[in-house]
Fold Citrate synthase.
Amino acid sequence: MKPASLDLISAQETSSRLGISRASLYAYVSRGLIRSFASPHDPRQRLYALDDVEALVKRRTRFRRPTAAAATALDWGLPVLETALTQIEDGRLLYRGVDAVELAETATLEEVVRLLIGDVDPKAFTLPSSPVGPLAGPALGSSEFVSQAIRLLSEPGSEVNPSREIAAILRLMVAAASGGEPGTAPLHRHLAASWQASSEAADAIRRALVLCADHELSASAFAVRVVASTGASLRNAVIAGLAALSGPRHGAATDEVRDFLEDCDRHGGTMDDRTLPSFHHPLYPQGDPRGAALIERLPLRVVDAAILRESESRTGERPTVDAGLVMMERAHNLPRGAAFALFAIGRTAGWLAHAIEQRRQATLIRPRARYAVAQDKASS
């Protein structure tokens, strides 16, 4: 819904002010740089936030130099790579044009892998992979999961049959979280069985994996594409994604949400003047649809439901997918840390798709650096 004080302009005027094509305008919207709303007079027409357009005009004026423009593009900036995988537009997440929230109603992660990559043999998931190496049990803390997954992926694979290798990589990721051999069972069912979860929880796990499958050019997806552009193996490209996800500025959100909720538990559900973390995403001004799709189906704990309501009231924002994953973990009594593992396993589908798409483009990602002389603060 449009805020009452927000001025809107047409697509034609927006394109004219920015000097861009309609296709570029839609790219700006998908990156969250310009908010888009349905016209109150014609639902088929989109209108655009004038404040956002003027901010972009000022930004362009400030950064006319190509080197400065390139630098800002790397920090929630303008699109820098072409992809046919995922689009974020008008508050929706689309996998190859298919709404991810609608897809999550029935699809499995295996089906989403085939959608994103395009030519994966469906029989690959019905045939056994090579035996999983020794496991020390399930690894569910974020650092423990990443370490175990990287160790398993470090074993040499074979890309003679790419579909079989894709299935093997996904199974290794699942094995890191379950502590057991997935075999040929659907991945979400294996996780539910290993975590002794109910059939309702199994369906929630399936839904979460689908919703986490890809999110355009995240930091980890970019790392995957850089590594894949060198011709590295799919396993090494996924390891790059895991390494990026291990950083606290990318993969720590579920830990922060859980820590907050557990602190509230210790204090009788009291929030004081705080609000739940992960209640804003810059690409979704009207709220993260993944978080809503997860939470609306959960048998929420009473205290968690109250915290959600109070946080929404205080911030005017909606919970992100990270909040939804932790709420799901708690609602279905999944092992502590399952939220992060589900995020990483689901995102592996997108990492594989990005790696393969980058390989097909046959270009090396090698930007240039702008040299800057270090300032000697001690002499000032």
Residues 8-80 form a domain with the Multidrug-efflux Transporter Regulator; Chain: A; Domain 2 fold (CATH 1.10.1660.10). The longest strand covers residues 46-49. Strands lie at 8-10, 36-38, 46-49, 86-89, 92-95, 98-99.
